[in-house]
Amino acid sequence: MTRDPAPAEPAPAPPAGADIDTDIDTGADADTDALDRIVGQWRRERPDLDPSPMHVIGRISRLHWALEERLCRVFGRYDMGRGEFDVLATLRRAGAPFELNAGELSGSTMVTSGAVTKRVDRLERAGLVTRRAAEGDARGRLIRLTDQGRELIDDLVGEHLRNESDLLAGLSPGEQAALTDLLRKLGRTLPD
């Protein structure tokens, strides 16, 4: 069941000048892909450099853009972008009464308060959230899911998780767990 909550944000495009091919399996044989060829070309052209980090970073970058496009398809069916989804999902995850102040919402969505305000404005116009003054803080605002917003995010998150499961179907549960651990470790060890 599709809804008409707010104008959708378009899926982000790869950075200008990025050589991103979201058709990840373009290799001549099943064990190689475009990145293997790119690394091989750099080894041939610049044997003084070690291009091996491209095997990981290049794949993460390519997968990011390919996955983002596929995830945004689901959001688009609800006339919603990732940003609006993120706000609604954050409020829903907070539990009853499905309400957070702007600072909590900004911290949970990991975007600036200005970006949260813009998203909340769109969602409020669509009747999916309400805003009210916080008790004891006239400048503070509380954002709450409406019944319509809760119904929509409950439908959407189910479809979103089914889509994510489909996207990971090529990996066994054990491979998914190992990848989760490796990505978590990489996230924790990235230099500042």
From TrEMBL:
SUPFAM superfamilies: Winged helix' DNA-binding domain. GO terms for molecular function: DNA-binding transcription factor activity. Residues 20-31 have a biased composition (Acidic residues). Residues 1-31 are annotated as: Disordered. GO terms for biological process: response to stress. Residues 50-188 form the HTH marR-type domain. This is MarR family transcriptional regulator. It comes from Embleya hyalina. The lineage of its organism: Bacteria, Bacillati, Actinomycetota, Actinomycetes, Kitasatosporales.
